[in-house]
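Late entry, written up from scratch paper. The run itself happened at the end of the previous shift, but nothing got recorded in the book at the time, so transcribing now.
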Amino acid sequence: MNKYIWVFVVMSSWLQAEPSAGLTPDQALSKMLRHSQTTVEIDQWQQSPARLGVSHLATGSGLNAGGDESEINLTLSWNSPGNRQYLASLDSGLKERQNLTLGYVKWQLAGELRREWVNLAKLATLVEFQSQQAEKLQVMFVKTKAAFAAKEITRIELLLLENALTEAEQQVAVTMTQIEVAQQAYQQLSGQTQWPLQWQETVRATDWQQHPLLLLQYHDVLLAESAFVRDSGGDNEPWQTGILLRKTQGIGTLPDDTAVGLQFSMPFGGASGTEQSALAQQQMHQQQNSLAEVTRQVRTTWFAAQAQLQSSEIALKSSNEQWRRAKEIQAAADTALASGEISQTEWLRLFLQNNDLEK
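Output as recorded:
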């Protein structure tokens, strides 16, 4: 079997084995992510761990009609009603942020994976075209050798065709190497050996305001603003309840005394001038500035990409028209060669010229 034909058969079977018609881009991305969402648990009632206190007072004067005192107390810190409302909103906000973060990561991976897929698809299409052209040259070369043996053509015509066939086979070999490198890059990125036959994503942004990074940054601004409102209003200060047990040792005829008490404390007034409020305000301003910068970058990039897309569509339309004309010219050249209207040298010139156009 001819060396080129063997390479072509192996390459054809290899190409048919790798793309998967049943594999969608979303499935490929899901295999890459394998994300298990972490549940955020926030205690909306108790603000901090319970505190246990112990004290002992020793006295020898007995002026208070008692002796040594021992006390034990347990203090619990509770979130205020305003803070509980904030924490409930924060809990749902953090879960939403996880989803937005996952969407942003998926968007980034989709861009990188799409880039590798496009490279693979282009190379696969190119090697298929190059293989068809080389196969056509191989058939013509066999006929040319027979014509040369019958002294119907010159050695120059035979050498020209043989040189074109050698170059075509080398192009196939180079593209096969490029496909192997591209396949390795795809596998290293995705961890998968197959790629989708077609690339159609189910979720597509219809305008720049739906960009995943912009949505994530906007959500961070909402979280920062909510924290500032909470801190400036003093809702982050805890309410406290406590229970205490005090035992006083009796002196002389006085018996020991045991007392049990309850205590309650709550903040009074606002907290707009506190350090925590100032820090929350600074964080809010930083998030707002980041949102403004991200908005500018996303908007600029979006419209630049739209312009590039329109330019690419125009270029593609022009390339398709050139490809159609090249096919017509080649078909006419094949017919003219078969009828003897043109020589093989002229046919080879037209073939190589159209070969460049079809690429």
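Confidence is low (pLDDT under 50) at residues 1-17.
(Scratch paper discarded after transcription.)
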